[in-house]
Amino acid sequence: MTEATLTWHRLPTRVLLLRVLEVIKSFIIPLVLLFVINNDWSTTFGIILRVGILLFLLLDVIQKFFGWRNFRYALDDKTMYIIDGNWIKKEKSLPLYKIQSVHSNSPFLYRLLSVVELTFDTNANSDDASFKLAGVFPNEAKRLEDILDQVRHRKTETDLPVEEETDTTSEPVAIEKPASRLLYAISTREIIIASLTSLSVFAIFPVASTVVSSIDDFINLDGTFDQVGEWVISASIIAIGVLVLTVLFLSVIIGMVINFLKYGNFQLERRGDRIRVEKGLLNRSAKEIPYEKIQAIRIKETFIRRWFNIVGVELVAAGTMDELKDESSTILPFVKRDKAMAVLNEHFNQFTWADTLHRLPKRSLWIKLMRISWFGLIISGVVLYFFRDYAWWLVLLWAIIIGGRLLSYMTTRYAQNGRFVELRTGAFNVHSFLTDKPRIEQVQVTQTPLQRRFDVCNVLFSTRGVLSNEMIEDIPKQEADAMLKWFSRYTVEEDMKTPG
């Protein structure tokens, strides 16, 4: 790269403060326990432990300093250049036209210091598929996003890669940022209902367990546990009941607070040719998915939320990097089914949902019930051999196993509708999956000896990009062969297109 002709930018000085605060935050529990609660320097082990913690803290701060000092970035009209590294400098460049989306993230500390973290995603399947600017001013973030919009606009207008342009002296065309269109915003009422119908009401237990475990590593809490156990044994039923209700009430409150912090001000928008999801109160994040990269739509229904007709919707996107995959793919975390379908039918009309789905034949139920449950057999053997007094719990275990198979038979549906295939699978938690033929990478049909006797089989669908597999089990062999034939034959010109 020609450094003399480029204008290089550093991250703001406050980013160094941010990184130091993050280091202190990661060491906060041992620092409080060793230097505040139990500040004992009388033993050799105590001195070595405390000095070691301080040395590790100092080394981490020095590393963050050199990482901030060495980091620089620059842009010309075609390429972004990065110089990075803590002890060893690394240089890399990335053509701007390869950047498919930009994700912004503003954790609480970032918002306090008025900086934004930007992640540039190329949607490639490699270690260099993305890179971050971990702390830039909002106006700089907007400038970078505008530059990328201009690159996308030029690429769309010319239908040629930016790197093939020959006129480097022409001025970049000033274009307006794509107008945002709000597709859905989650209300306070929806967050409250979602909190009450999810396992987040039990959030107090893992939180309390983590805190107690961290403290117990430095301070022995066995005596405290013994006192609590003695109180529970001697307390009245009313006192224990009040304690349980109090804990459950606190769990509900904590679950609601967590969901409000995570999904507050949730907005689903469309900006030009991409979907944008913004959410969060303390930690504000915004992530994008290009329309052309959408490979499939998945609708999720948990066991409890099915009673309230609440679903979650996520997109299967090609090439989405692992660290952003789960977050960026969820476009509707919890909404009523009719509202979710209205959004999908109106704004994702490149996918067509089937009017009716086929059920499994009755022989599929028999094969599900006859299939061996190794988990149930192993648990039953252990209980009968070591804990025979608790053998009656096995009735509940096998009731859950058999009930799950009955539910799986009742909920499983499938349909092949033109160039689309739609699957509905699951037992207690149900997933609906929709994609079309051009986006399918492969179709695989498998059949076990037991399935062969009942003339049923499994069909596995794999979509393009970051391979996403979806399987439907125990469908008639004739239907599976029809799906395989449907996928392997291209009779329409449009079927040959490979989106994304």
Protein described:
Helix content is 44%, strand content 25%. By secondary structure, it is an alpha+beta fold. The strands form 4 sheets. It has a 7-stranded antiparallel sheet. Strands 13-12-11-17-16-15-14 form a 7-stranded antiparallel sheet. Strands 1-2-3 form a 3-stranded antiparallel sheet. The longest helix has 27 residues. About 5% of the residues have low confidence.
Summarize the entry for a quick read.
The protein has 500 residues and is α+β, with helices and mostly antiparallel strands. It has helices at 13-26, 28-37, 44-70, 108-112, 138-158, 188-196, 204-216, 222-234, 237-263, 303-307, 322-329, 337-347, 362-370, 374-386, 393-411, 449-454, 477-488; strands at 72-75, 79-84, 90-95, 101-106, 116-121, 130-136, 180-185, 267-271, 274-279, 284-290, 294-301, 310-317, 330-336, 358-359, 413-417, 420-426, 430-436, 440-446, 456-463, 469-476.
